[in-house]
Amino acid sequence: MLARARGTHPVTPAMILTGSNEDTAANAAYDLRAHYVIKPVVTGRIEQFLRDATSLDAAVSLVLQEWTTRYGLSEAEADLLGRTALGESRRTIAAARDTSPETIKKQIANLLGKTGDDSLHAAAERLLRDVARV
């Protein structure tokens, strides 16, 4: 199920909570960038997961500010890129911004023209690589 979800939400924080300690399951969770917690759960592990998950938003915002300056992104383009990096779909972004899918397409084209990336997901992945360096 997580592998399927990663297709549309590649960086959304995920935790697998299980009673199993199978090596293959733990390795698969690692490959899918998920925290793997075995029952009984130590409360501190869940607290750390929540701290890590919420700090991603802050780290993306920080790097996004730098990108906005570097590439001359508009507020809409920066918001679109940040939301994509955090795993939101175009449909969700359009609804949140109260705009049409056609407007989102135009903003993506403008964004790609400024950053030189081949796709929105390529730009989001590059942004996240910069976040990982922070």
**Could you please say which CATH topology of the largest domain applies here?**
Arc Repressor Mutant, subunit A
| Domain module count | 2
CATH class of the largest domain: Mainly Alpha
**Could you tell me the number of beta strands?**
2
Largest sheet: 2 strands, parallel
- Largest sheet strand order: 1-2
Q: Number of helix segments?
A: 7
Helix content: 55-70%
Strand/helix succession: HEHEHHHHH
Query: Average pLDDT, to the nearest integer?
Result: 90
CATH architecture of the largest domain: Orthogonal Bundle
Written account of the structure:
The protein is mainly alpha-helical and 134 residues long. It folds into 2 domains: 2-47, no CATH class; 55-133, Arc Repressor Mutant, subunit A. The protein contains 7 helices and 2 strands, in the order H-E-H-E-H-H-H-H-H. The protein has helices at residues 2-6, 23-31, 43-71, 75-85, 90-96, 101-115, 120-133; strands spanning 15-18, 35-38. Strands 1-2 form a two-stranded parallel ribbon. Helix 3 packs across helix 7, helix 4 crosses helix 6 (101-115) and helix 4 crosses helix 7 (120-133). The longest helix is centred in the middle third of the chain and has 29 residues, at 43-71. The chain is elongated, with a radius of gyration of 17 Å. The model has no long low-confidence stretch (mean pLDDT 90).
